[in-house]
Specification:
Strand order of the largest sheet: 1-2-4-3
Number of domains: 2
Strand content: 15-25%
Order of helices and strands: HHHEEHEE
CATH topology of the largest domain: Alpha-Beta Plaits
Oligomer: single chain
Number of strands: 4
Helix content: 40-55%
Length: 179
């Protein structure tokens, strides 16, 4: 039996073919199987991320449905526009009580209502009321519509909203017409 140069039993040509086949298998592994394995690992991470997002959506779905249902409620299409009047000095004292009633009707808790005394003496024909309340944000819209429907309402200068536990705090500067 003839042996190759290195003293193996197999001929040199067969050894060369075996090395070429081994190299082909190695190239096959490096170019096809390893990238496929990396792609599979990446897809597994993507699937895990998507499953996490799906779980988050399942948790947030009831909140979304509730808020979406509240936006579907029928509200007046036209805002109230009563004939504008001016308050007399005697009627001004009833304005804080009226604002408190409107806030209570919309489930807002009034912390304070303060008429600015300095605006009662100027010649502008208006006076300022600072209102601080807390409640749900969705209830503020109805309250503002009712305030705008007051015949002596003039304008809202400022609305300040702060997030607190399970509610919102609202700060309003409301101008009312006076004689």
């Amino acid at each position: 039996m003839k042996t190759g140069k290195l003293g193996f039993i197999l001929p040199a040509q067969t050894m060369m073919l075996m090395l070429l086949c081994g190299a082909g298998i190695l190239v096959f592994l490096l170019w096809l199987i390893l990238p496929a394995k990396q792609l599979s690992a990446q897809l597994d991470r993507d699937i895990e991320n998507l499953q996490t997002r799906i779980e988050e959506q399942k948790i947030l779905a009831p909140v979304f449905k509730t808020l979406f249902a509240k936006t579907k409620t029928t509200e007046p299409q036209v805002l109230p526009a009563p004939a504008r009047t001016k308050l007399t000095r005697d009627e001004i004292t009833g304005v804080p009580k009226r604002l408190q009633q409107l806030a209570a009707a919309h489930q807002l808790k009034v912390r304070e209502i303060v008429p600015e005394v300095g605006t009662l003496n100027d010649a502008s024909g208006r006076f300022l009321i600072r209102l601080a309340a807390s409640g749900q944000f969705m209830d503020l819209r109805g309250f503002l519509i009712d305030v705008g429907a007051l015949p002596y309402f003039d304008s809202i200068e400022e609305i300040e909203i702060r997030a607190v536990e399970e509610a919102r705090e609202f700060g309003l500067k409301i101008w009312m017409s006076r004689e």
